[in-house]
User: Which sequence fits this backbone?
């Protein structure tokens, strides 16, 4: 037995060497797989800066029985090559694994062209597409074998950030509860989960007990876990580095409507604008997603909900959001 | 070189394929112009070049044909049915919800290797198949038919760059050079010539051929790959609506939806009768 893989590149190498079907493609994005060319030989295929061609080729490889794992920055993958993903991978339902680099806030100072904050919306619109949003490096590595052996096309919102979280064993389509409590329900996925966890821990010290749901896969969506959280908690927060359009917030709302669950839902996401480009820590602080900023926003939301339920007249967080959105109802 | 009998039987088969396409051009219609321009190519490839058969549709060593300009699929349906991939009677189901014979190809039809419809996709899909054949030491070769109008799509040229970079000499790109895109002559909108030179610059070994001359096609496809380490491109000069002099080369007869009488007139014309005069309105659908 070898030691467990510590990096994405190591884990992918093990999967390639252990399964002759797996091939690795990249549109010249090698950041996470730099050592693979030497390690997996002709099963490493760099097509140059040609995202559309890469997806078409991946479909051709998959129709021959291969499991292509393709790499490009998330915006160029999901947007430049969108129609190729939809047509060649989606219509055929081929097991192509789409690894989108620097999604959401991870694009840091690149600016709006690189901000994949609509990737969940577009990938979710493809019938049969799975979406894996690892919260950190350990969840990425834990989920990779299941994602690669699943017969479904899958978008992986790549996130190999280190974190101190201890995760439950990974099972595709099952959310993980990272904290128990009945005062606040918090739903998140991906990069922000460790920050949300830290914020929940801060509030716990103040007597506010949060139930934190880490979705892990946005499709399939663990509707049961969302419904259970909604039925236990008087207020639901959804935290995501994505536009409110087509992201996790809207999916959560759909679940609640479908199941006739009535609970205020407050999104902490991007309400129709690009985020301020900067280094990650500064982006998080500026946009209100650092642990401290999240804790403050959660505290306020909780306070407002409490005031409302005890009739003290503080504005309803959902109403405040509604006015911020120009009068449209958030849920 | 094929003998006179082979050519005669290919001509007969091509005429039957054209007749199928004409019969599919009613009750909703089909893209007849492009179907008739590539009918001879498909018949030639399936009878003389492709190492595949109805019994080999799952054989990983078979050759692949991909129709990237999927709107000419009536010619493919007709060819596959005539060669026994599925019963010719099934062609009567064209556009019926009870079957899968619609305006673009899909894998529910035996012999169809990949679906298409959106232009500019299947060169790269074919490259993936060709690359896998190389990785798995399979003798499979991949033939991708694109339209000349389709060459407007940047994705074709992007894929062409990569095909030669990867040395995919088991890949053959065939351009159905009928001179038209949907509504107008290619050269009047986005000129493609000198097309062979362009493809050669992208690293293909290129041949130009009359796409309706079986003897010439025999020479063009005689030796593949034409150059070791390079993909092949064959520019097949064809005529829109070939086989129907009343419609040949007409910009306004690409997609047609014929009355039953018109179908009969065109079938008669195909078999040597006088030119038909269509009264149905020219119809362009995209």
Assistant:
């Amino acid at each position: 037995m070898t030691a467990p893989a510590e990096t994405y590149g190591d884990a992918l190498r093990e999967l390639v060497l252990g399964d002759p079907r797996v091939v690795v493609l990249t549109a010249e994005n090698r950041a996470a797989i730099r050592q693979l060319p030497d390690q997996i030989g002709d099963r490493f295929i760099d097509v140059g800066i040609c995202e559309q061609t890469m997806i078409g080729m991946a479909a051709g490889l998959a129709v021959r029985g291969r499991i292509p794992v393709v790499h490009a920055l998330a915006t160029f993958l999901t947007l430049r090559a969108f129609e190729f993903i939809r047509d060649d991978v989606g219509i055929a339902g081929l097991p192509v694994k789409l690894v989108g680099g620097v999604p959401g806030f991870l694009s840091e100072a690149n600016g709006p062209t690189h901000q994949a904050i609509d990737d969940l919306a577009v990938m979710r619109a493809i019938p049969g597409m799975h979406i894996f949003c690892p919260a950190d490096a350990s969840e990425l590595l834990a989920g990779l074998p299941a994602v690669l052996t699943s017969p479904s096309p899958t978008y992986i919102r790549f996130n190999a950030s280190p974190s101190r979280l201890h995760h439950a064993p990974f099972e595709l389509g099952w959310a993980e509860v990272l904290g128990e409590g009945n005062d606040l329900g918090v739903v998140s996925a991906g990069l922000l989960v460790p920050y949300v966890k830290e914020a929940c821990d801060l509030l716990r010290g103040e007597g506010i007990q949060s139930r934190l749901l880490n979705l892990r896969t946005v499709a399939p969506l663990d509707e049961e876990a969302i419904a259970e959280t909604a039925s236990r908690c008087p207020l639901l927060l959804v935290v995501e580095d994505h536009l409110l359009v087509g992201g996790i917030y809207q999916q959560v709302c759909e679940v609640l409507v479908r199941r006739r669950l009535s609970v205020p839902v407050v999104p902490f996401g991007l309400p129709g604008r690009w985020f301020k480009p900067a280094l990650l820590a500064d982006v998080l602080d500026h946009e209100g997603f650092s642990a401290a900023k999240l804790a403050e926003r959660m505290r306020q939301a909780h306070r407002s909900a409490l005031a409302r339920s005890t009739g003290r007249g503080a504005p309803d967080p959902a109403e405040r959001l509604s006015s911020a959105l120009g009068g449209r109802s958030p849920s | 070189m094929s003998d006179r009998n082979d050519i005669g039987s290919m001509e007969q088969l091509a005429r039957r394929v054209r007749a199928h396409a004409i019969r599919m051009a009613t009750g909703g219609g089909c893209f007849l112009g492009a179907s008739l321009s590539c009918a001879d190519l498909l018949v030639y490839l399936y009878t003389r070049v492709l190492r595949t058969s109805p019994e080999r549709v799952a054989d990983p060593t078979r050759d692949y044909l991909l129709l990237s300009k999927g709107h000419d699929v009536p010619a493919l349906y007709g060819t596959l049915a005539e060669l026994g991939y599925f019963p010719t009677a099934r062609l009567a189901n064209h556009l019926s919800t009870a079957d899968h014979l619609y305006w673009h190809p899909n894998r529910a039809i035996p012999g169809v290797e990949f679906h298409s419809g959106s232009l500019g996709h299947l060169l790269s899909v074919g490259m993936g198949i060709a690359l896998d054949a190389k990785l798995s030491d399979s003798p499979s070769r991949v033939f991708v038919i694109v339209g000349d109008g389709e060459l407007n799509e940047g994705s074709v040229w992007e894929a062409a760059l990569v095909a030669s970079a990867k040395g995919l000499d088991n890949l053959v790109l065939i351009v159905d050079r009928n001179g038209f895109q949907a509504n107008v002559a290619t050269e009047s909108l986005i000129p493609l010539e000198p097309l062979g030179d362009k493809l050669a610059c992208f690293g293909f070994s290129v041949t130009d051929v009359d796409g309706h001359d079986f003897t010439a096609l025999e020479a063009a496809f005689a030796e593949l790959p034409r150059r070791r380490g390079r993909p092949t491109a064959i520019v097949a000069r064809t005529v829109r609506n070939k086989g129907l002099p009343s419609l040949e080369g007409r910009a306004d007869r690409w997609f047609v939806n014929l009355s039953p009488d018109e179908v009969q007139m065109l079938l008669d014309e195909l078999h040597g009768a006088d030119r038909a005069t269509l009264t149905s309105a020219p119809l362009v659908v995209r």
